Amino acid sequence: MLQALLSAIVDLVLSVAWSAIVRLLGLENVVEIATAILGLSCIVVGSRCSCWATEDSALAVTSSWTVPAA
After folding, report:
1. Residue 33 CB contacts under 8 Å (≥ 6 apart), including other chains
2. Angle ∠(37,22,42) on CA atoms, nearest 5
3. CA 12 – CA 7 distance, rounded (Å)
4. I need a surface site. Which of 19, 42, 56, 68 has the fewest CB within 10 A?
5. pLDDT in tens, 55-65
6. Which class for 21: exposed (0-12), middle (13-18), buried (19 or more C-beta within 10 A)?
7. Is residue 54 within 8 Å of residue 47, measured between CB atoms?
8. How is the chain split into domains, by residue range?
9. Rounded Cα gap, residues 59 and 53, in angstroms
10. Is-contact 30 21, C-beta < 8 A?
């Protein structure tokens, strides 16, 4: 029940914020800004995923090494 209440509050706040931004900047500018934010977020997610893939492959290589017996 608490989660539903918090979700409703967040939805209300985001709706009010969106309305204020559209009134201040105009709809065309908001669409351009939203497109830029979406594009940058895709770049960030893609670069982070590539970093995770690099870290995982490096861990796989190091974990497969064995120390020869003396």
Report:
1. 25
2. 10
3. 9
4. 68
5. 655 555 555 55
6. middle
7. no
8. 22-47
9. 10
10. yes
